[in-house]
Amino acid sequence: MSGKIKLLIDNLVEQRAHGNQSLESTTRTKLLLKGIDFSKYSSSSDDDPEVIAKIRQIAKDMDIQLTV
């Protein structure tokens, strides 16, 4: 399934921010600081198991349960 990384990132940002633009921005910045460049991924991007594992770990550290 391609595009899973984008779905995970979107899900993480949505759950953390709950529509708050400021929290969306800081969450995306945290992803960048942890090595995840969200702008590189689209719904047609190939899935990289290492990146997926990294996103899941970041979500776990933020106490967020990803549903994707």
Summarize the structure.
The chain is 59% helix and 0% strand. The chain has three helices and no strands.
Topology:
Elements (H helix, E strand, L loop, with lengths): L3 H14 L3 H13 L15 H13 L7
Helix pairs in contact: 1-2, 1-3
Description:
The protein has 68 residues and is mainly α. It has one domain. The chain is 59% helix and 0% strand. It is built from 3 helices and no strands. Helix 1 packs across helix 2. The longest helix is centred in the N-terminal third of the chain and has 14 residues, at 4-17. The radius of gyration is 11 Å and the shape is globular. The relative contact order is 0.27. The mean pLDDT is 94.
Specify the overall morphology. globular
- Kindly name the structural category: mainly alpha
Largest sheet: none
Count up the domains. Answer: 1
List descriptors.
3 helices, 59% helix, mainly alpha, globular, 68 residues
